[in-house]
Amino acid sequence: MAEPDKPGILDRLRARFGWFDRVMRAQERFNDCKGNFYAAGITYYTIFAMFPLLMVGFAAAGFVLSRQPELLAEIHERIRASVSGDLGQQLVDLMDSAIKSRTSVGIIGLAAAGWVGLGWMANLREALSQMWEQRTEKRGFVHTKLSDIAALLSTFLAITFTIGLTALGDPALMTSVLDWLGIHDLPALGGLLRGASLLVSLLVSWLLFTWIIARLPRESLSFVSSMRAGLLAAVGFEVFKQVGSIYLKNIVHGPAGVTFGPVLGLMVFAYITARLVLFATAWAATSAENMAMAPVPPPDPALITTRVQVDEGLGVRQALAAAAVGAMGALSLSWLRRR
Question: CA-to-CA distance for 88 and 238, rounded, in angstroms?
Fold first, then answer.
């Protein structure tokens, strides 16, 4: 009798450590639902959205400069002082041309930003829904787009709100407030301010990621079931921000780093953040309480195969065998009667 296969090292670790089994369940859900594929799509739309947003920013700057000629003249003088000769004058003419076309640039930028933003939101919501294994019925095109627009506006407001809260935890702002209150020159003040800033940033990120995990899927979920996953994403995001700041400080010294470093850093930042959010969503979806409430899929349909057996009667061999058996039976019966 063959002996059963022994469990592998991963199976033994999962049976021994509950937290390791929890991580592996989340990783399996992430891989089964194509988490890397959706993270790449979110990254693409994030980078693509930078260009129309820059157009809107240039248009807004053009409107501001057109109403402040003194500031515009000062910028012209600084450009000519920094870049001498014809090149400086060309830069000034280019900036003046951009200011004159600010209206068209702003309209095109807003239209492109809206189109790209809807694609980004649709991809993000689909990815989050897949992590939760939500199989909702497809709705109409107009209803879906209106829902994505509402989700995009609410996400924009949530991000703006969290950025405002993060600014309150800025060490420079805290120092200014303490100086205004007359509290300064305290020992270890710098360390306390950095710790308070990190704590505020962590709390704000926790709130934002919890909201994304619970509210952006096609079917909204409760905040309670997403709070642990939001905390996991917030901690990972803060660690990644610290590592990213060290990366940017080390690459901006050379010309190649100045040219390509920020772009590569933005791509890596968007991709890692997308993967972090999707993995945290998979973590929330594979918790014991959420898996217990998950709908059980119906069994696969049974396959019924009909069998048709045609009785063609006795064959030649069967007839000969039956005749032989009958003859033997008759002989046996005749012998018994004589006896």
Answer: 42
What does the pLDDT look like over 240-255, one tens digit per residue? 887 877 766 666 565 6
What distance lies between CA 179 and its chain's CA centroid? Answer: 42
CA distance 155 to 215: 10
Residues 81, 167: contact at Cβ < 8 Å? no
How far is the C-alpha of 203 from the C-alpha of 273, rounded, in Å?
A: 17
The answer to whether 252 and 261 have CB atoms below 8 angstroms apart is yes
Tokens of 117: 């933003």
Rounded CA-CA distance 56/115 in Å is 14
Contact 286, 33 (CB under 8 A): no
Report the alpha-carbon distance of residue 178 to residue 190 in Å, rounded. 12
Closest CA to 229 of 128, 136, 160: 128
- What are φ and ψ of residue 68, in 5° steps? -130, 80
The Cα–Cα gap between 314 and 320 comes to 10
Indicate the pTM of the whole model.
0.73
Distance CA 196, CA 202 (A): 10
User: 131 and 215 in contact (C-beta within 8 Å)?
Assistant: no
Cα(123)–Cα(128) distance, integer angstroms: 9
